[in-house]
């Protein structure tokens, strides 16, 4: 059984969703991201002191999208395709964390996540501008496609949509990005995503 250390209202949500898509049994080991991650016991699992962490038998993994690639690998195709689409899956995972996530986080922190007194409108605006530029790339990629790789849903969609969950949930303006908006809804309203979201949004 997969053991996912974290809480659903964190990046662990992405891993819970991946496990649901893969049909893998999992257990959530509650770890609070503010206090529990500082303990020596948790640092022995992840020296970075962050969640999520996956323990799968003798394997321990941190970094949510690496965890998801491992989970998808256990299921195989179509969740994790082979050939050129495998390389494209890795491309979109790296794009998600290097291009989309920093901008999405900057916007979310300064719009909805932090207490109002701690939000910086200038940073929120910068995050929105940066995120919109990245989503324009995604909008073009989705031309004529229901999913990122052009066929069915894969872990590439799960990874990127998981990164973009907060802007989607918190109504980031996407009126001029209809393909992105439709794709996110298509991904995040899948049965497996709804099961994971029920834990996160409880």
TrEMBL record:
The protein's name: Glutathione S-transferase family protein
GST C-terminal domain: which residues?
A: 82-202
- Family under the similarity heading: Belongs to the GST superfamily.
GST N-terminal domain location is 1-79
Alphabetized PANTHER family for the sequence: GLUTATHIONE S-TRANSFERASE GSTA, GLUTATHIONE S-TRANSFERASE-RELATED
Q: Which domain of life is it from?
A: Bacteria
Classification via InterPro entries? Glutathione-S-Trfase_C-like (IPR010987), Glutathione-S-Trfase_C_sf (IPR036282), Glutathione_S-Trfase (IPR040079), Glutathione_S-Trfase_N (IPR004045), GST_C (IPR004046), Thioredoxin-like_sf (IPR036249)
Alphabetical list of Pfam families matching this protein = GST_C, GST_N
Species per Swiss-Prot/TrEMBL record: Plastoroseomonas hellenica
């Amino acid at each position: 059984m997969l053991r996912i250390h974290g809480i659903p209202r964190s990046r662990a949500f992405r891993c819970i969703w991946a496990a649901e898509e893969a049909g893998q049994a999992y257990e959530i080991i509650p770890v609070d991201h503010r206090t529990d991650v500082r303990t020596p016991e948790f640092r022995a699992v992840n020296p970075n002191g962050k969640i999520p962490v996956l323990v799968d038998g003798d394997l321990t993994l941190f970094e949510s999208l690496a965890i998801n690639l491992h989970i998808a690998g256990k299921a195989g195709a179509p969740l994790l395709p082979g050939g050129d689409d495998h390389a494209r899956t890795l491309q979109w995972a790296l794009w998600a964390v290097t291009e989309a996530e920093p901008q999405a986080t900057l916007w979310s922190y300064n719009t909805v996540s932090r207490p109002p007194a701690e939000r910086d409108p200038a940073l929120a605006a910068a995050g929105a501008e940066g995120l919109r530029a990245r989503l324009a790339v995604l909008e073009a990629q989705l031309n004529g496609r229901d999913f990122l790789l052009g066929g069915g849903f894969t872990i590439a969609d799960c990874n990127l949509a998981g990164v973009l969950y907060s802007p989607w949930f918190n109504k980031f303006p996407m009126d001029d990005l209809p393909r992105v908006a439709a794709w996110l809804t298509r991904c995040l309203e899948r049965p497996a995503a709804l099961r994971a979201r029920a834990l996160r949004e409880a």
